[in-house]
Amino acid sequence: MTDAAPTRARRSDATRAAILRAARERFAADGYDRATIRAIAADARIDPSMVMRYYGSKEGLFAAAAEFDLRLPELADMPPDRLGELLVRHFVDRWETDGTMAALLRTAATNHAAAERMRGIFADQLTTAVARVVPEPAQAPRRAGLVASQMLGLALTRYVLRLPPVADADPGELVAWVAPTVQRYLRGAPDA
C-alpha cells in the first residue's frame, strides 16, 4: 500500500511531462489557434480528458507549456545613450518573428495562469537585464516594469488587437517612436 502513492505520483509526473512535451511541439508547429487538445493528447498518447484534468483548459496548458526566453541582449555592453533604441528594436524583432509571445499575451488577458507566466517572464528576465544598466539598481524593478508596459502595450496593439495605425507601421518607425520613452525609463529621472 505504501508503494502505491509514490508509483501514482511518478506516473502522474510522467503524464504531465508527456503532455507538456507534446503541447510545446504542437504549439510550435501549429500555433496556438490551430493546436487542439485532441492533437496534443494524441501526440502524448493519452486520453484528451487527462489534459483537461491536469491543465483545465487549452489556455492553462499553453501557459504551463510556454517556455519563453526573451533572449535579451547584454545591455551592459551597449552604449548607454542607445539602450532604449536597442531594446525596443530587439523586442519588435522578437514579436515580428515569434508568434509564441503574442499567443501568450492573448491568453494572459483572460487566463490567470498565462498572466502569471507572462509576469514571471518579464519580472525575471527583464528586471535582471535592466538592473545592469540603470543608475540605481534598487530602481530596476520599477524601471523594468515601465519598459514592460511599453513593450506589452505595443505588442497588444500591433499583434493582438491589430490596431491599424500601429499594426500597419513599419517596424523601424515603431522603434523611432517608442525608443525615446524606453530610454527615459532606463536612464532618465522620473521628473524628466
TrEMBL record:
Residues 13-73 form the HTH tetR-type domain. Residues 36-55 bind DNA. InterPro entries: Homeodomain-like_sf (IPR009057), HTH-type_TetR-like_transc_reg (IPR050109), HTH_TetR (IPR001647), Tet_transcr_reg_TetR-rel_C_sf (IPR036271), TetR_C_16 (IPR041678). Keywords: DNA-binding. It comes from the Bacteria. Transmembrane segments: none annotated. This is TetR family transcriptional regulator. It comes from Micromonospora reichwaldensis.
